[in-house]
Write a structure and sequence with these properties.
Layout lengths: L30 E11 L5 E10 L2 E6 L10 E8 L2 E14 L2 E6 L4 H24 L9
Antiparallel strand pairs: 1-2, 1-4, 2-3, 3-6, 4-5, 5-6
Length: 143
Amino acid sequence: MLNSQPLAPPASSAPVPQGNAPHERRAQVRHVVDTFAAIFLVKIGSTHTGRILDLSLGGCRIHTDERFKVGIYTRVETEFRLEGLPFRLGGVIQAIHDHNTIGIRFLDLSERKRQQVQELIDEIELMRAAKASTEPAPAADRS
């Protein structure tokens, strides 16, 4: 059974800043990633390429290589590879941030795909925590 509670970020994760928090409707924390992505427009049959900027259990934000001319609520499939694992997830264009940056909300994820995305997010958090623990602490200001 899926947990309907929002995911709380561990102390070591570095979510994308959300701006004015009282107005934020996002239930899941976004995790910064940078990897190639292909966006397949289901009804049109065309493909756009770009890079995923962030990922959450509910969706992702992608910067496309060319101007994105399709409107919101268009059905898409997003294909990408992270940590050696290939993903192809169905969704819908949820937001258009500018001519080349879109937000995709994942739809109809099977329990298996949802679990795979959650495991990927968990791995991203572990890697971020490991990196943070090996970086030297900033020197205190002694003025």
